[in-house]
Design brief:
Oligomer: homodimer
Number of strands of chain A: 0
Order of helices and strands of chain A: HHHHHHHHHH
CATH architecture of chain A: Orthogonal Bundle
CATH superfamily of chain A: Tetracycline Repressor, domain 2
Helix content of chain A: over 70%
Largest sheet of chain A: none
Strand content of chain A: under 5%
Shape of chain A: elongated
Number of helices of chain A: 10
CATH class of chain A: Mainly Alpha
Distance between the termini of chain A: 61 Å
Chain lengths: 231, 231
């Protein structure tokens, strides 16, 4: 019993420690999302989380390690909200391409990681740097653009997109519209309707006759088409 | 003569002081361009410029004042290279719209302010903040997007662009392509050819019959058209 008790205490301590660690990452991630990784300070975190500075150091050892943990957590959230849902096996080709763009816009709109830092601002700032963090952020950008290209190719093979559609160019144009949508939203709180319409116009211009052209006329028409095309 | 001498010394001191101030701003601006304003530190500047920390403080009093001077200088450079040339009175409408986009791409390509911070990264990070600096960066973004919109409207009035072209939507799409071009360049050093072609395709889709449609087929054809259309 005494063993069990000790074990219980240890496990409890471990769980509490893990919880504190998670809370620190979460708090730091929200500071970074709105203000950049540079805005994270041990003093500020200690104050916001009501723990001592030495208590913080037990969990990360250095500010750099904490920043790495924040970027890793932010990537997991990005993949979970944006790439994950689009990788659903039910989706393929043009539907997947749309899902990638739509989830990206939804991610911004829902302020999952509020502000413009993750991963747009962070990417623009760190792209020419050589730290672990900069490298991780570039990896996220690469995975993202590769997912777009792959979905374009899949759309071509499924004969939904014209056979001569250039995957790199299309991925570039769609990614541009998403960056522009986030930019506009940050500038004047504009909604994503301009981006949605521009994405549909782009898809329409590249689609084969397999897809009726009027389904690209509005987001509602397009979603209705996707929901009903197999029935 | 002694008065003249004193005056001469004072003026010399003033000039030297101004030169040092300029050198500090310049050095800090290049650090910020590649790494963000947060990367500027008094210690680093003192080391790079081989002056004392107290010597630096004489010129700015606080790091915040120095950051403000850096953002002001960077805006002047952005306007001088991008908005200024496009505001040339000889240009108007579609030519001005093209000049705005082309100068923006050239600004990135020439690494006038190297890296991705000014003003893209800086904007994405600071758009939801309330400091003087964040406000100044938003002003640059507003002036930029307004210049694009105004050039679209001018193109409509000159009957170069179709009368029902939406200036906000067109400015959004062109700005998106520019952001995407900078993003791609930072990711894999790709050139701006995808962006140039996408911009020309966009202009072609909005142009009236006043402009021969084959001039949008390549950057060379378009530049040749602009250079010769009045002759």
């Amino acid at each position: 019993m005494s063993k069990k008790g000790r074990h219980g205490t240890r496990a409890g301590g471990f769980t509490r420690g893990k919880k504190t660690r998670e809370a620190i990452i979460d708090c730091a991630m929200h500071i970074a999302a709105s203000e950049s990784l540079g805005a994270i300070s041990i003093g500020r975190l200690a104050k916001e989380l009501k723990i001592t500075k030495s208590g913080l150091f037990i969990h990360f050892g250095s500010k750099e390690k904490l920043e790495e943990a924040v970027v890793t957590r932010a990537s997991e959230i990005f993949f979970g909200h944006v790439l994950g849902p689009a990788e659903d096996e039910v989706k393929a080709g043009m539907e997947r391409l749309w899902a990638l763009c739509d989830s990206w816009l939804q991610f911004v709109e829902d302020r999952v990681l509020p502000g413009g830092y993750f991963f747009t601002g962070a990417f623009f700032i760190s792209a020419e740097q050589h730290s672990f963090i900069a490298q991780r952020i570039r990896e996220v950008a690469h995975e993202w653009v590769n997912a777009l290209r792959k979905a374009v190719d899949e759309g071509r093979h499924r004969l939904e997109l014209q056979i001569d559609v250039n995957a790199r160019r299309t991925a570039f144009e769609l990614n541009s519209l998403l960056l522009g949508a986030q930019w506009s939203r940050l500038l004047d709180h504009s909604d994503h309707s301009k981006a949605h319409l521009a994405i549909l116009a782009k898809l329409k211009s590249l689609a084969t006759e397999k897809i009726p052209s009027d389904v690209f006329d509005s987001v509602t028409a397009w979603r209705h088409y996707l929901d009903n095309r197999d029935s």
